[in-house]
Design brief:
The chain is 76% helix and 0% strand. The protein is mostly helical. It has 3 domains: 1-119, no CATH class; 151-193, no CATH class; 205-255, no CATH class. Helix 4 (58-70) crosses helix 5, helix 7 runs antiparallel to helix 8 and helix 9 (207-230) packs across helix 10. 20% of the residues are buried. The model is unreliable at 1-8 (pLDDT under 50).
């Protein structure tokens, strides 16, 4: 689908509770039926929101995916929240997150109680089969991403070198350094790619809201460790640990 055609048919945004309700129902359906990990989720999202519902132009969706891959945290969850926000504002982003995440969260909670209640379940053949299937799913996702992002020897070599650097330096600073270095190498060496057409797309978030979110992000990142040390609390320590993990893991944490 071309950018011009898809941009011309993008459906108007629906705000308020009606728009958020629409977003919640759509993402709830995706949350109940989307299997295969984040790369597969992104494919489902494109089919649903670009081709079927025409909420986004194809180019705008590609730019959004690229941005979410660069930011820390789970890629497909970020894309879903951004799509919901662009459709129905911040309430739509919250609805997208709830609809897409709630089904798997409930299943995981139920499974966790099952493991705790039935001795030997975690070592059973059923769970072992699920682990084997997960390996195949992740391998398929990596292969699909490699074919799309590394179509030639130059890009494949950069991907391999970045993987080796991350494996040799398995820390948050190593991941950030690798991202910066690869970006610089790409800017200097991959100048043969034709410039992509710009696809402006509003997301209904003001600059003030963006600044407040950025300040809150860095404030929690710096303040939570200090708060958890001064106020010993298990729940606070767990929240601090997961917040720092989500803030410092790049490249699609749900992969």
């Amino acid at each position: 689908m071309g950018d011009a055609n898809s941009s011309a048919r993008v459906r108007p945004v629906r705000g308020g509770f009606a728009g958020a309700g629409e977003v919640l129902l759509v993402f709830l359906k995706l949350g109940l039926t989307s299997f295969g990990g984040p790369i597969a989720h992104l494919g489902y999202f494109r089919q649903e929101f670009v081709i079927h519902r025409q909420w986004l132009a194809d180019r705008a969706y590609s730019d959004l995916v690229a941005l979410c891959q660069f930011l820390p945290g789970p890629a497909s969850s970020k894309v879903g929240i951004a799509v919901g926000t662009s459709r129905a504002g911040l309430l739509g982003g919250l609805a997208a997150w709830i609809g897409f995440t709630l089904p798997s969260a409930l299943v995981l909670i139920a499974f966790g109680y099952g493991v705790a209640s039935f001795a030997g379940l975690s070592e059973s053949g059923i769970v072992h089969g699920l682990k084997v299937a997960a390996v195949a799913v992740v391998a398929q996702a990596v292969w699909g991403m490699a074919k799309n992002l590394c179509p030639d020897a130059k890009r494949a070599s950069l991907a391999v070198l970045s993987a080796l650097l991350v494996l040799a330096w398995p820390t948050a600073s190593g991941q950030i350094t690798t991202i910066v270095l690869c970006g610089l190498v790409g800017k200097w060496t991959m100048t043969d790619a034709p410039p992509a057409p710009h696809a402006p797309h509003g997301f209904g978030v003001s600059k003030t809201t963006g600044v407040v979110a950025a300040v809150l992000f860095f404030g929690l990142l710096a303040g939570l460790p200090l708060l958890s040390r001064s106020l010993p609390n298990h729940a606070l320590a767990v929240f601090d640990s997961f917040y720092r993990s989500g803030s410092l893991v790049f490249g699609g944490a749900d992969t």
